[in-house]
Amino acid sequence: MEILRVLTLRGPNIWSRQPALEVWVDLGPLKDTSSEQIAGFNDRLMAWLPTMIEHRCSIGERGGFFQRLRRGTYLAHILEHVTLELQTLAGTPVGFGRARETQVEGVYKVAIRFQEESLARACLETARRLCLAAVYDLPFNIAEELKPLRELADKVCLGPSTQAIVEAARAREIPVRRLNAGSLVQLGHGVNQRRIWTAETDRTSAIAESIAQDKDLTKVMLRSAGIPVPEGRQVDSPEDAWAAAEEIEGPVVVKPLDANHGRGVFMNLTGRDQVTSAYHEALKEGSGVLVEQFAPGAEHRLLVIGGKLVAAARGDAAVVIGDGQQTIAELIESQINSDPRRGDDEMCPLNPVLLDLMTLTELDRQDMRPESVPRRGARVLVRRNDNLSHDVTDDVHPSVAEHAVLAAHVVGLDIAGLDVVATNISQPLEEQGGVVVEVNAGPGLLMHLRPSEGKPRPVGEAIVATMFPEGETGRIPIACVTGTNGKTTVSRLLTGILKLAGRTVGLACSDGISVDGRIIETGDCAGPRSARNILLNPLVDAAVLEAGRGGILREGLGFDKCDVAVVTNIGGGDHLGAYDIHTAEDMFKVKRTPVDVVRPTGAAVLNAADPVVAEMESLCAGGVIFFAMDPEQPVLARHRSAGRKAVALLDGVVTFFDGPDRRPLVAVAELPCTHGGRAEFQVENVLAAAAAAWGLGIDLEFIRAGLRAFSGNLMDDPARFNVLEVAGKTLVVTDLRNASALQALIATLNRFPNARRSIVYSVEEDRRDADIETQGQLLGAAFDRVYLCEFERGSLRRAGEVIELLRQGIGPEPRAERIEELLEWNAAVDVAWNSLERGELLVVQSSSISQTVRKIRLLAGMERLVPDAATVGGANGTTIAFSAN
Hints:
By secondary structure, the protein is α/β, with parallel strands linked by helices. It has 29 helices and 38 strands. About 35% of the residues lie in helices and about 25% in strands. α3 (about 75-90) packs across α5 and α4 runs antiparallel to α5 (about 140-155).
C-alpha cells in the first residue's frame, strides 16, 4: 500500500467545505482484497482501535464502520477511518472522510478531514503502518504509537485560550486564519480584520503590558487609584530582602519583579533563612525581586474583558492526609498527582505538585521533609495556593468587581487577569484585609473554561464580543469568479465597477494581484494563496478573486465563504485528464466549489445557456441570478417566470429582470469591449459581471458607468481579445487556450469584415492528445495561414510533439493555404506579422502577458499604446485604434 501523493486542501474543496487531506494511495497487490478475506484482520483492527465503534460510516448508526469491516471493505476506506480515529485520539476530533477509486485500477483518492495539517500527516503515516500490521499479523503497540502523536498535537495545536476565542469567532461566522505556527490568529478579512495572540488582542497596549510586567510600578499605580495592594518594596540583595521583611513586621511574600504563572513566588515566610533563600530563587525567574506583606486567604483570579468582570476562579491549598505508612512524597503522588485532571500539557486544568523549593519551603515551615511519614489523619499543607480551578464568578462582591475593572483600566489593559488574595471574595476587600497583588496581561483562560468545580464561563465569547460588536462578522464583500473561459475579464470588469462605487478593491486573477489599482504581484494569481494575500491586506474592503481549476484541486479555495460566486461556463471543459478529472461532468465537481459556500445573503451568478453550469442552481444557499444572451432561453425564462433575478439582452440592451420588473441598464453598442456586440463571448462576460455587481448590491448607476468605462484594451484587459488597427492591418491579441474558446473566437471573427485571416497558435503540453487535435481541426477550417509554435516546454512532451498533434488535427485538406511550424513563439509572431497584407487580420495567441504586451508594442512601432479618445468607446464599437501619444 503506497501513498503516491498528499494534497493539502486548506479551504473548501471538491470533497468538503472544511480542510482535508487528499491522499492518492495505490493498494498494489491488496487492490482486490477486502477486509473479510484477510484472516484475523478485523479482530486485530478492532482490538487496537475499539473506539472506532463510534464511526457511523455509510450505515448511519453507531458501529456502522465495524459492520462494513465484517461485510468487507477495501483498505483505502479503512485507511481513511483509521487516520480519522488517530487524529481524534491525539486530541483533534474529526469525522469526515471519503474514499473513491480513480480510473487507474487499484489507485484511490482518499479525503480525510483535519484540524492541524502536520498532525494529520503524521496520523496518516501511522495509520498506513497500522493497516499493514493488521494485514500481515505484525505486532503493533497502539499505546506507544499514540504517544508521539499526542506530543505533536500538544506542540502544534492552538492552546486552550486561543482555541476558545477561535471557536467563539467561528460560532458567529467570523472568518479565522492562523498566521503562524504559534498563537497569532486573524479574525475577519481586509479592512475589518482583527488579530489575537492567545488572550491578547491587537488593541492590547504594549505600554500597558510593560506596566503589568513591572509589579512594583503596578502597585504604585493601583494604590494611587485607591485599590488595596500589599505593603512592600523592591529589594536588591538578600540582606535588603530581610531588611524589607523586618520593616513589614509580619509574614512576607518574596516574588520576582516581572515573572508570571506563579513562578518563583514564596509565601508566608517568617525566618531570615527562608527569605534569603527565596530571594535567590525569585531572582532566577525575573529581573528583580519584591518583598511584600503576606495577606491571609485564598488566591483568586479575576478576569476583566472590555471593562467588565466576566469570570473569577479560586485556588485552594494542596493538602495530603497521612495514613501512617506513606511518605509525603508518596502521598503527593497517590492523593494529588494521580488526579487525571493534572498534567503538564495545556489541556489539563490542574498542574502536578512538584517537590520544588516552594513545596520544600512549605514543608520546612511544618518541620517536615518529603521523606517524612505523617501520622494517620494528619493534614499536611504542601502548596499554599494550588491551581486556580474553582469557579466563584457568581460570588464576587460588586465592590471587588469594581476594583478589578478599575485596576485593568488604570494599567490600560483591554483583557486582564487580576490576582486577588481574600478570605472571602463575596465581601469587600477592605473589610478583610484583601489585596490585589498582580495585574496580568495575556491571562490564561483554561481555569475559566474547565474549572475543576463550578460552571465554565464563556470567556472566548466575551473576548470576541469586545472585538466584534453584535451583528458584525469582520467580513468584507467577496466575489469569486470561476469557469472555463472569461474568468479574468469578468473579474476585471467587476473590479472596475466596485472601484467606481468607492471600494478599495483587492483583485487576484490570472494576470496578478492588485489593490486599488496598484499592482502587487504579476503572473498567474488565480489560486488560494493569492486570495488569502488579498484578504490579509488591511486596506481592502472588497475582494474579487478568480478561482482557477488547478488551485481548487491542489489546495481548495482561499476563503471560507463568499457573497457572490460567478460560474462563467464549463463547455467541453479544459485541462481534462489531470487530477482524475476527465469529463465536463467531472469538472462540475470542481467549479461548483465556490457556489457551495455562497452565504445565505449572497447569490450565485450562473450561465443559463451552459447546461452543466445551470445544474448548480440547487447548490446555492443564497439566491441565484442567471444570465444569458437570450431572455427567452428556457432555463432563464423559467427562472424569470418564478419571480427570480436574471440578466439578459433585450433589444440589444443589457437588462435586469426581477420578477415582472425590467430595468434596462446599457446598450451593448455603448460598450467598447463587445465591439458592437459582435464578440458575443465578451457580451456574456459583461452580463456575468453586471449580474455579480447586482448580487453585491451595487447601485445601477455605478454598474452602468463601470461597463462603459471598460475598454477591453491592452491597458485594462491585456490579451483578452484586444483589437488594434495598425498600418491598415487588424491585429487581435487573445489568451484562448481550449477548443471552446477557439470556437467562440472563430464565431466572432466571422462577423469582422476581413476576408483573409491568419493565426499564431499553440496548445499547452498538459492537454490531452485528442483535445490538441480538435483545436488543430478548428484552425485548419477557419484560417488562411496558420503559424504553429510551442510555449515554454516542460517535461510532459518532447519538443515538437504539440505541433505534430495540431498538424494531425488540421488534416489533409484545410482552408489554410499556408501552415508553418516555428517552435519559438517570438519567431512565429514575427513571420506572421511580416507576411500580413493590408486589410488582413492576424490573431496572436498570447504567451505570458508581459511578453505579449511588449511584443505588440514593438510590432506597432510604439513605445506606449494609448487609446485614441476619438475611437475608444465609440457607438460602432468596431475596432480600437491606438496612437503613440
